[in-house]
Amino acid sequence: MVYTDINIEEIKDWLKENLCEERYIHTLGVMDAAVELAQMFNLNVEKARLAGVLHDAAKCFSNEKLLEIIHEHIPEVHDCELLNYKTLHAPVSAYLAKEKFHIKDKDILDAIRWHTLGRCGMTEFEKIIFLADKIEARTREAEFRHQCLELLKEEHGLDKALFKCFEATIKSLVDRRLAICHITIDVYNELLEKII
Ligand SMILES: [Fe+2]
Ligand SMILES: [Fe+2]
Question: How far is the CA of 146 from the centre of ligand 1 (A)?
């Protein structure tokens, strides 16, 4: 099955032009990690590759540009998402995946859309893309990656690894005195219930 009429090399060329070097390297890492996790969990590898490569497409846009696109094209973005500008690239990257890179597949678009905040009732596919973003081997911390990969071997491993990511995210937001979107807390509580 083909999910876009645009060649992945063309997508990478666009990303190379529109992301800073570190973000581009991270993007390639997420693409590889997404493929690895898709194989591990018997999910669609081609969709994982596309979600991985496009997840941060809008990451290097200015806040003004992100807000402009959101106001014009994605009015459904929650108010609480606007609390932290670092998360705004997720809905805009999903918008680009659809409009610029012609992806219609809902799984790919949703995984990109929710890769920063997560959401309650995440699908397995959304979870592996979320996790790939945190544990890719090229720019993320090796120890954290290793701990998550170990958790994946356990029963309910995907939820356990995801919980570890949410725990770390919330701790870091608290440490930096940044606002926490209620969606993130809801997912934390949902995962906590699943893993205990
Ligand atoms: Fe991101
Ligand atoms: Fe990312």
Answer: 21
Cα(51) to centroid(ligand 1), Å: 11
Question: Which ligand does the CA of 26 lie closest to?
Answer: 2
Helix (H) or strand (E) holding 157: helix 157-175
Mean pLDDT across the chain = 96
What type of residue sits at position 60? Answer: C
Q: How far is the CA of 7 from the centre of ligand 2 (A)?
A: 21
| Interval between CA 56 and ligand 2 midpoint (Å) | 5
pLDDT in the model for residue 135: 98
Domain map of the chain by residue range? 8-195
Are 85 and 63 contacting, i.e. CB atoms less than 8 angstroms apart?
yes
Q: What is the pLDDT of residues 153-183, one digit of tens each?
A: 999 999 999 999 999 999 999 999 988 999 9
CATH code of the domain occupying 8-195: 1.10.3210.10
Residue 190 Cα to ligand 2 midpoint, Å, equals 23
pLDDT value of position 84 = 84
What local confidence, expressed as pLDDT, does residue 140 receive? 96
Q: How far apart are CA 16 and CA 66, in angstroms?
A: 19
